[in-house]
Amino acid sequence: MSTHAFDSVLQARRSVPASCSIPGQPSKRRVWTAASILIVMTLALLAGCGRPEQAAAPAMPPPAVTAVAAKSQTIEETAQFVGRVAAVNRVELRARVEGFLKERRFTEGQAVAVGDVLFLIEPDQYEAIVEQRQADVAKAQADSQNADAQLKRGLELLTQKNIAQAKVDELQAAASVAKASIAQAQAALTAAQLDLSYTRIIAPVAGRIGLAQLTVGNLVSPSSGVLATIVSRDPIYVQFPVTQRELLDARRDVQSRGGDPKDVAVTVRLPDGTLYDHSGHLDFVDVTTDQGTDSVTLRAALPNPDGTLIDGQYVGVMVQSGEPESAILIPQSALQVDQQGVYVLIIDADSKAQIRRVETGPTKGSNIAVMKGLKEGELVISEGIQKVRPGQAVKAAPVTPITEGAAS
């Protein structure tokens, strides 16, 4: 209110007599009270207009997030199974004749070659039997020579009619029996020589030999059980079960690409989580199905020059189920899901978060492949997503690209 208006109010107050009272109008006291209130309000307004405006509250800083640069890499779709290592050749050594162990000619765990003598059973008694059978053969041969001579003389006498035909027939039969005796003695000699050879237990395959179950001096026989075991080392098999459904899907996939199932690559993960240095290929699919699990056993052959894979151990098996293809990898923590599907938040050129719908592929450790929706180099928010709304400005931490090591 201006000074002129304020003076007018005061003048009006003075012009009204104190004793004057107009019927139906407020009294002088009431008028004064209303005027006082009006003056106070006017002064308050004037005082408020003269004060400077208060400073506005400071704006909140943009939320801090961690972003990853999307990177295109070549990935291979794989299926994972649990398998068991099996030696290509596995031989259990057993005694084939009875006798006392005379020698053990190997060190447990050593590599052996085909033909190496590993155990020696006392051969003395078997050598004696061989000599006896050799004598039997010599006697049978002498008897046969005598029978032949008798038959020849009888035939000469028969031409002179100095011997009966019946006697000549007997001489012919004796000669035939003598020849049969030679064959019988020779067979007995062969059996004795085999028994003698069985006193030398040799390595039928190359590989590494395990623990000896019996020591020198023990009596062994075919019923004594396994004396030791030889397993081949390089190459080596890995066997793993696959369900019928997985097998059918894999066959259709390979045939649709015109490939050969034997060319499917197989890699192995060792018990400590590391990948085996050498890869192999499928070489056999079992001809029967396990009725209990409805699975089929597949086998892959892998090189094993260092003996890392050991017969009987469990390993992880990864089978390449598709051709290598290029895809963009991002952390799985960047994925978000709503009613419309899967999406990620990216950072645009104005440092604002924006929704981007994506189609995902196979996982690779903590990362996942994005088949559609992202371009290489775009910044994807991987941490701090819960603090961000689409369209909101954000402050990204230093960008860390996906590396080959992280992808595997």
TrEMBL record:
For this entry, list what GO says about its biological process.
response to antibiotic
From the Swiss-Prot or TrEMBL record, state where the protein is found: Cell inner membrane
In terms of InterPro entries, this protein maps to:
MdtA-like_b-barrel (IPR058626), MdtA-like_BSH (IPR058625), MdtA-like_C (IPR058627), MdtA-like_HH (IPR058624), RND_pump_MFP (IPR006143)
Please report the record's description of how this protein sits within the membrane: Lipid-anchor
Q: Which Pfam families match?
A: Beta-barrel_RND, BSH_RND, HH_MFP_RND, RND-MFP_C
- Ranges where the Multidrug resistance protein MdtA-like alpha-helical hairpin domain occurs: 132-199
Task: Tell me where in this chain the Multidrug resistance protein MdtA-like barrel-sandwich hybrid domain is found.
Answer: 89-222
Q: Which domain of life is it from?
A: Bacteria
An example of a Gene Ontology cellular component annotation for this protein is:
plasma membrane
The molecular function GO annotations come to: transmembrane transporter activity
Cited Gene3D superfamilies: 2.40.30.170, 2.40.420.20, 2.40.50.100, Helix hairpin bin (1.10.287.470)
Domain Multidrug resistance protein MdtA-like beta-barrel: start-end pairs: 235-322
Chief location category: membrane
Q: Please report the stretch or stretches of sequence annotated as the Multidrug resistance protein MdtA-like C-terminal permuted SH3 domain.
A: 327-387
Give the residue spans that cross the bilayer. none
Name the family.
Belongs to the membrane fusion protein (MFP) (TC 8.A.1) family.
Name of the protein described by the UniProt record? Membrane fusion protein (Multidrug efflux system)
